[in-house]
Design brief:
With about 200 residues, the chain is mainly alpha-helical. The protein has a domain of about 55 residues. About 55% of the residues lie in helices and about 5% in strands. It is built from four helices and three strands; from the N terminus they run H-E-E-E-H-H-H. A three-stranded antiparallel β-sheet has the order 2-1-3, with no helix packed on it. The protein is elongated.
Length: about 200
């Protein structure tokens, strides 16, 4: 039993170097270089560009040569900061686009909830009067004697106050307005980045 355990442990220690997979690299449309060890993670658009590279241990150089300053680059060459800046801009665009998409999806749900809360508030605050109540109210209104207390469409029952429904409606309305404002800001930021 002990020999089997030792053989299993020895096999487990030897297997990882044998199963190390390959590394794949490709450049996207923006020129950014990507790496992965899973070929399924390579986007379909870049499958033809992807190539397998061998894993290589980095060499340690004792004294690296000093790099020339970026300003010394010739006019035909692209400076080293252009690629990181383009990658950062692309990353920011992707982040903003994802945030905008999630905001727009959430807004659809919030607007449905807002409509439901408005309906609830309308139902709680109002009532359907009888024909006699409407006629009396219209006569008073024609004479100029009607007040808001005479309005037969308003619920006068103190036990069914519309205040909680009204508060819930306006709270959701503020959320929707805040999200719409943030969506406008993101759209403006995306337009600025695309220029």
């Amino acid at each position: 039993m002990r020999n089997i355990l030792m053989a299993t442990m020895l096999l487990a220690l030897c297997v990882p170097p044998l199963v190390l997979g390959s590394t794949y690299q490709w450049r996207d449309a923006n020129g950014s270089l990507h790496f992965t060890d899973d070929p399924d993670r390579i986007p379909a658009a870049y499958l033809e560009r992807a190539r397998e590279i061998e894993s290589v241990k980095p060499e340690v150089k004792p004294n690296p040569a000093p790099k020339a300053p970026a300003s010394a680059a010739s006019p035909g060459q692209v400076s080293g900061t252009a690629k990181p800046a383009a990658a950062a801009a692309a990353s920011e665009r992707a982040r903003l686009a994802a945030e905008l998409k999630s905001l727009q999806e959430a807004l659809v749900v919030k607007k449905k909830e807002l409509a439901r809360l408005h309906h609830k508030w309308s139902v709680v605050k109002g009532r359907t009067p009888t024909e006699d109540e409407v006629k009396k109210f219209e006569k008073k209104r024609d004479k100029g004697e009607a007040t808001s207390k005479d309005n037969p469409y308003v619920n006068k029952n103190p036990l069914s106050s519309p205040a909680p429904a009204r508060a819930a409606y306006f709270k959701k309305l503020q959320e929707v307005q805040k999200d719409e404002e943030r969506a406008r800001q993101i759209e403006q930021s995306l337009q600025a980045l695309n220029r």
